[in-house]
Amino acid sequence: MDERNESTLIQEAKKHFSALGLRFFLGSLVIYAVSIGVSAVVGTFWPQAYDNLSLTLVLSIVPMYLIGIPALYLIVRPVPTGTPGTGKLTAGWFITFLVLSYGFMTLTNLIGTYLGMFIELLVPSAQASTNAVQAVAFGGEIWINAIFMVLLAPVIEEFVFRKTLVDRTIEYGEGVSMLISGLFFGLFHGNLTQFLYAFVMGAILSLLYARTGKIRYTIAIHMIVNFMGSVVGVLVIRAAGLSELMNQFLGDSSEGLGSLDMAAIMELAQDHAAGLVLYLLFTCVVYGCMLAAVILLIVRHRQLRPLPGRTVIPKGKRFSTVICNPGVLILIAFYLVVIFFATFGNGLVQSISGLAG
Question: Which band of pLDDT confidence, cut at 50, 70 and 90, is reported for residue 245?
Answer without folding.
Answer: low
